[in-house]
Amino acid sequence: MRQAVILAAGRGERLRPRTDFLPKPLLSVAGRPLIVRHLDHLAAAGVERVFINLSHLGALLPRFLGRQWQGMSLEYSDERTQRLETGGALVALRERLENAPFLLLNGDICTEYPLAQLLASAPGLVLVDNPAHHPEGDFAVREGWLAMPAPGLSTYTYSGLALLDAAWLANFPDGPAPLAPWLRQWVAKGLLRAYLQQGYWCDVGTPERLQAARLHYGGT
């Protein structure tokens, strides 16, 4: 089954006061909420099941989206009593992901990367040229594989889009945990391919970047 996880539990502190009333994934770019852009993109790629984690104002997401979207089933993971962070959120879903590959998308990005192409690829991360707010980057690339930064290797930034394997989550404990250290472990083991971003990308994490995405798409 083609499946995906959208991380949608963030507070969106830097986007207040907008996020005092809406969860960040419901902020709109050119008239479409960020999470709707993701869901439309996933449906077009043939995804059948999407898991969405919830926390801040989390009740609004299932109320707005429902349980079906263009033929996909939507399932929710409620973190309103305890935020699990990006890694813990995946551990909480591992049984429902059935030890199978899944797309992972941050709920606060705009991306035009072809998701059907990523689904047909080996597990890996989609990388972007280092943006101004993260000039040091996260990873290097060596012969198509992700590598840790090293002298002589250009660095790139993780875009917030990946294809991962839920079987890799088996030995991590339940509870809050960041994903980044696990990504570095998998990179060190040579498990992750590197895919360079295709098309437009924006991390909509500040009012300025939200406005940049809106201007790109010619709307509000």
TrEMBL record:
It comes from the Bacteria. Pfam families: NTP_transferase. Residues 4-122 form the Nucleotidyl transferase domain. Signal peptide: none annotated. InterPro entries: Mannose-1P_guanyltransferase, NTP_transferase_dom, Nucleotide-diphossugar_trans. PANTHER family: SUGAR-1-PHOSPHATE GUANYL TRANSFERASE (PTHR22572). This is Nucleotidyltransferase family protein. The lineage of its organism: Bacteria, Pseudomonadati, Pseudomonadota, Acidithiobacillia, Acidithiobacillales.
